[in-house]
Predict the 3D structure of the following.
Amino acid sequence: MKLFEPITVGSLKLKNRIAMPAMHLCYTPDGMVNERLIRYYEARASGGAALITLGGCTIDLLGPGPMMVGLHDDKFIAGLTEFTLRVKSSGAAVAAQLYQAGRYTHSMMSGQQPAAPSAIASRLTKETPREMTLEDIEVVIENFGEAARRAKEAGFDAVEAIASAGYLICQFLSPITNQREDQYGGSWENRTRFGIEVIRKIRVKTGSDFTIMVRLSGNDFMPGSNTNKEAAAFAALLEEAGVDCFNVTGGWHESRVPQITGELPRGGYAYLAGGIKKAVGVPVMASNRINDPLVAEAILQHHLADLVNMGRPLLADPDLPKKAAAGDFHAIRRCIACNQGCLDMVFSLQDVHCTVNPLAGREDQVSVLPAETAKEILVIGGGPAGLEIAYVAASRGHKVTLWERSSWLGGNLRYAAMPPGKEDFITLLGFYEEMLARYGVTVLLNHDANVDQIVQAGVDLVVLASGSLPIEAPFPVSNPKIITTALEVLDGTVIPGEKVVVIGGGSVGCETAITIAEMGAISAETVKFLLENDAETPEKIKELANRGTREVTLVEMEKGIGRDIGISTRWVTLKSVDRLGVRVLDQHLVKEVTNEGVLVEKEGIQILLPADTVVLAIGAKANNSLANELEGKVKELRVIGDAAKPRKLTEAIREGFDLARSL
């Protein structure tokens, strides 16, 4: 595979084409390197990544982010030196990303008003920065150079200046955030000046034989800002200034185009890297949603990029490169683009972990070792919690049997994979099925366990991972024939009528409403056909793609919908609800389901919502009736996952893992 061919980037020779980009982890509250950070990256280096970029790393105290690695003072060099020695000895080259946020800086982090090219408010922070003086600009450029000098002194193989996501260099380049009238604003030449001077300063500070990279926004996806055309022109200028490699991503934090959620197809922004590659002669990296080595290989083979970035995919599976190199694709635990453990944590200033990899971020605390004494374990339920404990326990040498009452494994994981943009969730089930087979777990499907059977099994440990059940309607129902559940709609058991009311505005209700609203809309394949043949106008095609054949109303008793959706993805869900024309009635209490539809009330006023189908998405309850019956009848009983308490996928997998490693 081309993915595993070596490549030279500046003066740096890389063993393959897989890079891990800078990811904020919130592991360094004081900016100092610690054992947790090192062990986390050692695992990714030993897993086969060729280049790991640490960061963002603060270059000053004017534009820092929360709990970032410090690079703005010489006091950080000693810790960073230990970091580079240990990570490089594990097999990867290392770079440091130089970070300055400009108007994206939160004053509560810096202790002062943010500074930016112009005093234009940020929709991200809800703050207005002060305009940088010429002296400010000179100081920040020097700070970039000094941070690069420290990185080189600490043993880093390269540095990467961040000119993406809407941070400071982007702000100087964009006409919507740079309205200066001096030599750093106005014309294209003036708006590129700051970024070029940053690179020149870094080159002066690090010498001619040190590798300089730039994380570049391939398209700002901001109305009135730079597109791929301008990004390519800027890249050409930066190459002249001394850049050895471009790491291309898309969008700003403020843009309303999804960047890394499941709505973006795998490798969907590789075309942006392709646009930059045509304009420069140095290597280019493609980024965003490249969670499959075969997708990565296609990007390289199609000459869209020379390297590929895998950030969250290496969070999910540090050994992805090694597995791919061995052709062991089924053993890869792929990132499912849920953002629950990564981006949601960053935006809420919590430590990053991973939904599908419960070891991530705990490499310094937790290990999975062979069991001292093999036990016989019976797992009841083949959902995420049951699958995780079954596979991990078996991998440690325990003898594991799993009983599942349905004809398939996965539990609610299968339903989670059915809404638009969530298709990658099903890859996790494929991983589990492969692991169960490899480690000899005995799986019995269509096996509805009862107490006598469980007791007769005579095992050392019974794990009840039987999941949850939908909550039944807590209001009168005159016509139960029109009532169904979200799960029945998602799995295709029930095809809803033309007028649909979804009751419950949490994540399940929102995703079910979106799924129904898209029924009857034209497919992506049809969109491509119509565009290629000029069969319809682009406006008509957009209309057909964004409207299905159902009238959908979403009813929620509290204020707002999607409140249980993570902060980094909620806006995407709400955008889809709006795009598809779903009618939202929040703060409406359901009084009754009648023969004609749903009677709701708000502030004493009742209205009837006509409906052919009423979909319940009002929550779940633990399915653990066996727990009380088994108490005292088996040697040991544990209840995990939704059977203990319905929560998110993260908790189900974590509980299965932690129990398995403790046995």
In short: The first strand starts at residue 7 and ends at 9. The radius of gyration is 27 Å. The chain is about 35% helix and 20% strand. The chain has a mean pLDDT of 96.
